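Problem 12. The chain below contains 301 residues. Write out its predicted structure in token notation.
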Amino acid sequence: MSRPSHIFIVGLSRTGTTLTRTILNSSDYIGLGGESMFFGDTHRMGLFHRDGYRHKFARLGGLATDEGVERIVAYIYGLGKKNFWGNLTGLVARDEFTRQLLATDRSERALLDLALSYYAGQKPIRGEKTPAHLFSAPALMEWFPNAKIIHAFRDPRAVYVSNKRKYENRAHTRLSALARRTDLLFELYASLDVMLNWQRAIRLHREYQQRYPGQYYLSQFETLITEPRESLQKLCAFIDIPFQECMLQQLVLNSSFLPKRQRAGFDPSAVDRWRQYLHPLLNRWFAVWCQRQMVEFGYSV
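Solution.
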């Protein structure tokens, strides 16, 4: 396996994409940005459908003209440091970003790659992690033929419970308010959405395995947590970088169950913690829809 130019971490939300990014950024070779949401989440249904930043930039006039570039840069530098694009303001001066963008071929690919270069700094491998880019991996691979895709994967019941608790903990969100008002209806809808997208993730896994041999890797959250050293050694071999001990020195950064940065290291109890929060009827509901696939990927039913 050859060393990639880019790495893109994808997968359903709450599958360990943030943990995987922080681990890889511990390496001397990799500098990955957060969620660019460049392609958005337009393949999802209902409440979860949203455009990407490429669509927002196109509505501002696109990159073909200097005026369009100026509007896009003004938009980015007006976001504040709240996301992937807004955080560029702390990495590069506006005039320098504008100058470098104008010097590119003015393509969407060039804009994304320029932003990724600032996050990578002096590290040779750049990239980002946007879970929803699971559905846009072919576009990324067309743009960056020497890239590698890491697909974070997890038990669908854990994905559902983690997402549910995430929104419950954010009382200001509309989705959380909806969950409190129509609890049973919301649980049926949200769990079905997770199951359908989890099954689709499996179909994409099989497609990408065949389509991108040597450039696609499935990383199961449960194995990463319970066997971190062995898992990271295999991941490093896939990327073609040396394993470093610092990769094992992680903090829990994005758990739905713990305050941020409360616990250091890999927590094996995170694998089955969802069982405390999932109603037995919902557990059987998951088995009705996903039993065959859960067994296939080593999850007890």
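Discussion. The mean pLDDT is 89. Students who got a different answer should revisit the alignment rule from Section 12.3.
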